[in-house]
């Protein structure tokens, strides 16, 4: 079975991995460099619990948890094929409260998740878990099983792995429109001509809606810009992913700390702004004041694909022959392998 995957980010490459594992002949098209867009610029938080609380649908929350628990085996398989370590670490995550209202809300979150059989521990002493947290913290919920991965390394491992497994990866190819035969999608028209396939997987991230040819097949996918700041502290003081004050801190374990992130509906404006950096650093220093002595290293932005407050669009679409893997917003890295498996099962008729 010939499958054409449009998009070389984490959704496209993970779909290609799963499709190839099921014996499909896979061609992957990427207009730039595979993994160079939002996927490799993400923070890599595998926050199945810290970012999954009401009003998240319980069934979707279970998907997030299952995706997180499946990560170690997946990254080990990628490492064995590619020789690249994707940087998976079970570092845990904590949500910090700075007001009585926040504390009450987080205690309710912890109770709700414990009812589901998940680990979620409330403590009134956040600094017992992370001594560098601001003294003004009044408590925190700790999610011991949440984890992280390094997206650039994950994308490199995926790219190398799918090539070694026999996927035909074509970079620098721009898809102009989907190729249709009546009401069925049969491939794509590119600058290099038409490429035919038995099935097409559209995994173009926040650019999904820019691919024309099948109107009404998918909801509108919009970009949401997120800016991230990289600091480096020596020696490292943070060890746990920390959410609080409207932002997050992701310590890599070697002194690097990712601080994020903005949420901006500005289209595809690829700009790191003074206001965005100031906002992020203000939150970071409010949560962990000791970071004031950390070295500023870098800042970047990415575009999260957003389809509204609904789960991602994964699997068969209303157009025969066309499948989708998009709209993951903040959970793209977490759901990467789970999405690839769902897409492959749908393509193969599961």
Task: Briefly characterize the structure.
This protein is α/β, with parallel strands linked by helices and 350 residues long. It has eight helices and 19 strands. The strands form four sheets. The protein has an eight-stranded mixed sheet, sandwiched between helices.
Keywords:
29% helix; 19 strands; 8 helices; elongated
Question: Explain this structure to me?
Answer:
The protein is α/β, with parallel strands linked by helices and 350 residues long. 29% of the residues lie in helices and 29% in strands. The protein has 8 helices and 19 strands. The protein has helices at 10-21, 38-41, 58-82, 100-115, 126-129, 151-164, 274-287, 336-347; strands spanning 2-6, 25-30, 45-46, 93-97, 121-123, 139-143, 147-148, 168-171, 175-181, 184-190, 193-196, 199-202, 222-232, 241-244, 247-251, 256-260, 295-306, 313-316, 322-326. Strands 5-6-4-14-15-16-13-17 form an 8-stranded mixed β-sheet, sandwiched between helices. A 6-stranded mixed β-sheet has the order 8-2-1-12-19-18, with helices on one face. Strands 9-10-11 form a 3-stranded antiparallel β-sheet, with no helix packed on it. A hairpin with a 2-residue loop joins strand 9 and strand 10 (184-190). It is elongated and about 65 Å long. The model has no long low-confidence stretch (mean pLDDT 94).
């Amino acid at each position: 079975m010939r499958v054409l995957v449009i998009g070389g980010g984490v959704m496209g490459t993970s779909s290609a991995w799963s499709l190839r594992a099921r014996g499909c002949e896979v061609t992957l098209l990427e207009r730039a460099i595979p993994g160079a867009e939002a996927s490799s610029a993400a923070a890599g938080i595998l926050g199945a619990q810290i970012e999954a609380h009401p009003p998240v649908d319980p069934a979707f929350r279970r998907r997030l948890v299952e995706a997180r628990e499946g990560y170690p085996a997946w990254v080990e398989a990628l490492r064995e094929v590619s020789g690249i370590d994707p940087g998976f670490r079970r570092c845990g995550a904590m949500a910090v409260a700075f007001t009585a209202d926040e504390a009450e809300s987080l205690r309710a979150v912890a109770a709700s998740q414990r009812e589901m059989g998940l680990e979620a521990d409330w403590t009134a002493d956040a600094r017992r878990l992370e001594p560098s947290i601001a003294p003004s913290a009044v408590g925190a919920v700790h999610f011991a099983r949440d984890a992280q991965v390094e997206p650039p390394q994950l994308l490199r491992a995926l790219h190398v792995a799918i090539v070694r497994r026999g996927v035909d990866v074509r970079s620098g190819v721009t898809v102009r429109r989907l190729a249709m035969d009546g009401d069925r999608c049969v491939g794509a028209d590119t600058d290099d001509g038409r490429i035919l396939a038995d099935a097409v997987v559209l995994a173009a991230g926040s650019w999904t809606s820019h691919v024309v040819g099948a109107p009404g097949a998918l909801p509108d996918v919009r970009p949401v810009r997120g800016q991230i700041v990289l600091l480096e502290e020596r020696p490292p003081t943070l060890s746990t992913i920390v959410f609080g004050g409207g932002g997050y801190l992701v310590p890599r374990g070697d002194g690097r700390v990712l601080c994020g992130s903005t949420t901006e509906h500005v289209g595809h404006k690829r700009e790191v702004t003074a206001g965005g950096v100031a906002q992020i650093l203000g939150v970071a220093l409010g949560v962990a004041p000791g970071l004031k002595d950390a070295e500023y290293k870098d800042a970047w932005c990415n575009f999260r694909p957003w389809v509204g407050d609904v789960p991602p669009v994964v699997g068969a679409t209303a157009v025969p022959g066309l499948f989708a893997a998009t709209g993951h917003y903040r959970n793209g890295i977490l759901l990467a392998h789970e999405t690839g498996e769902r897409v492959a099962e749908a393509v193969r008729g599961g």
